[in-house]
């Protein structure tokens, strides 16, 4: 019979690379032109604004990860803080968002693949499916192997991006850096909401916390370190793209006159001509595959953690005896990934995932407040988030503010995910758990009742 223990095989560097790998895909290779169309040159500021809104959630999650270094990440923290109903919504929703983001990465690489490979659009889908199978197999065969390959890929991609930025400094058209904004502050905020998903990967390593060596030190360092590196890299790369590429190509170079889906390649031609386009396109394909790998690695841990808490069927918590990975959870994630690539217009649905990511990041801040105020005895983090509670309140309110800029359809989509997740809890999980979370401890204390212990951060 398969065991239930995961192997702590990830050191600081591969852990940080997993986080960066989850951020280094569409945020650099696809979204800059879409953001540029909304805010002009001020899209650079939009990336900084999005990072500021993400930072409180990253700090909150870093603290909770050191108190609960187990698989589950977002689900685990919200469940233990606000109870299993909110935990189920967060777990299903975060899993949903990450799988869609991984699908978006694999399908999105098709636009770059067509720039150097003689393939039809239909063939690109089959390539994406083949890469998805490879990513799933890699995740089943071992977290350590997946993490090591991730580290190598991300290191090479970062080196390529730095070379792109440095060379752009010699040939960029400085006249393209004015005017700074074309749509006022509203355009910047809308663009920030749109590119917010670029940073979503920063906290996803918390979902593999059970497989990280010395999590009390490595998790906060990996989260905050990767976010600092990626914020600088985003600003530098987006600035280079704007200086290299024709503004009209960025705004209308995509399918049917939409924003370009290959902004880095649009500017690469100014560096090395056709050869530069091929080099950047190859790097983009590798990076987007890496992003999908990080997404599957992280998202597959949500069903595992929810199964352990009896909110999903027990088969999903099976650990492969040979590879020490959550085989069934990875397979479920892989099947959904393949179906999305084959049948769903992922780029549009990625907007829905982005809206839910903003909502989840806002709730994460509330979860930390619940833990701090409840003073749960088993909550003993090794890292303490600074600026409490003002940082968390800012993160919560700023996240809701960005959510209002997403448009009606993404907001309705997020509402649909919430309703579906609540239904899963009511039909399956409610009768199997009696946890109330840290917020339950707060309510009992106010009523003068004795704490019954079911708000503990320990698993049932």
Using the coordinates above, name the CATH class.
Mainly Alpha
Report mean pLDDT, rounded to a whole number.
83
Whole-angstrom Rg: 21 Å
Shape: globular
Q: Which bin fits the share of residues in helices?
A: over 70%
**Structurally, how many domains make up the residues?**
1
Uncertain regions: pLDDT < 50 for 5+ in a row? 452-456
Gross CATH architecture: Up-down Bundle
Q: Kindly state the number of beta strands.
A: 0
**CATH superfamily grouping:** Amino acid/polyamine transporter I
Give the CA-CA distance, first to last residue. Answer: 21 Å
Give the structural class. mainly alpha
Number of helices: 18
CATH topology: Amino acid/polyamine transporter I
SSE succession: HHHHHHHHHHHHHHHHHH
Beta-strand content: under 5%
Largest sheet: none
Give a quick precis of the structure.
Helix content is 71%, strand content 0%.
Descriptive notes:
This protein is mostly helical. It has one domain: Amino acid/polyamine transporter I, CATH 1.20.1740.10. 71% of the residues lie in helices and 0% in strands. The protein contains 18 helices and no strands. α4 (43-67) packs antiparallel against α10. The longest helix has 37 residues, at 263-299. It is globular and about 70 Å long. It starts with 11 loop residues before the first helix and ends in a 13-residue tail after the last helix. The model is unreliable at 452-456 (pLDDT under 50). This is Amino acid transport protein. One of its GO terms (cellular component) is plasma membrane. It comes from Halorubrum kocurii JCM 14978. It is found in: Cell membrane. InterPro entries: AA/rel_permease1 (IPR002293), APC_superfamily (IPR050367).
């Amino acid at each position: 019979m398969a065991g239930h223990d995961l192997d702590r095989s990830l050191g600081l560097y591969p852990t940080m690379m997993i986080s960066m790998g989850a951020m280094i895909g569409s945020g650099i290779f696809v979204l800059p032109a879409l953001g540029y169309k909304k805010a002009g040159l001020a899209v650079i500021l939009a990336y900084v604004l999005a990072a500021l809104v993400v930072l409180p959630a990253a700090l909150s999650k870093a603290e909770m990860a050191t108190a609960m270094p187990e698989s589950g990440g977002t689900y685990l923290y919200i469940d233990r803080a606000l109870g299993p109903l909110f935990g189920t919504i967060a777990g299903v929703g975060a899993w949903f968002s990450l799988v869609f983001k991984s699908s978006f990465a694999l399908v999105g690489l098709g636009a770059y693949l067509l720039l150097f490979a003689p393939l039809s659009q239909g063939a690109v889908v089959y390539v994406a499916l083949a890469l998805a199978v490879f990513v799933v197999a890699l995740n089943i065969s071992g977290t350590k192997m997946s993490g090591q390959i991730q580290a190598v890929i991300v290191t090479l991609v970062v080196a390529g991006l730095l070379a792109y930025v440095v060379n752009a400094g010699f040939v960029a058209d400085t006249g393209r850096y004015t005017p700074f904004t074309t749509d006022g502050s509203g355009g910047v905020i809308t663009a920030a909401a749109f590119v917010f998903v670029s940073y979503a990967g920063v906290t996803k390593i918390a979902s593999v916390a059970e497989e990280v060596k010395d999590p009390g030190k490595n998790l906060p360092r990996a989260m905050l370190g990767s976010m600092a590196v990626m914020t600088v890299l985003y600003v530098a790369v987006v600035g280079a793209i704007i200086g290299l590429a024709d503004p009209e190509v960025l705004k209308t170079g995509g399918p049917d006159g939409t924003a370009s889906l290959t902004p880095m390649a649009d500017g690469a031609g100014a560096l090395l001509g056709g050869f530069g386009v091929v080099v950047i396109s190859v790097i983009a394909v590798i990076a987007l595959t890496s992003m999908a790998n990080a997404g599957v690695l992280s998202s597959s841990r949500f069903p595992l953690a929810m199964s352990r808490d009896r909110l999903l069927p027990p088969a999903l918590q099976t650990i492969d005896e040979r590879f020490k990975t959550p085989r069934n959870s990875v397979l479920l994630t892989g099947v959904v990934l393949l179906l999305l690539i084959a049948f769903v217009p992922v780029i549009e649905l990625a907007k829905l995932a982005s809206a839910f990511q903003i909502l989840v990041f806002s709730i994460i801040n509330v979860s930390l407040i619940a833990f701090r105020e409840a003073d749960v005895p088993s909550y003993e983090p090794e890292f303490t988030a600074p600026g409490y509670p003002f940082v968390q309140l800012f993160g919560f309110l700023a996240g809701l503010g960005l959510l209002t800029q997403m448009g009606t359809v993404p907001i309705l989509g997020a509402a649909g995910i919430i309703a579906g997740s609540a239904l899963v809890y009511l039909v399956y999980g409610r009768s199997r758990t009696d946890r109330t979370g840290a917020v339950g401890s707060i309510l009992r204390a106010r009523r003068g009742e004795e704490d019954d212990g079911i708000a503990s951060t320990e698993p049932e």
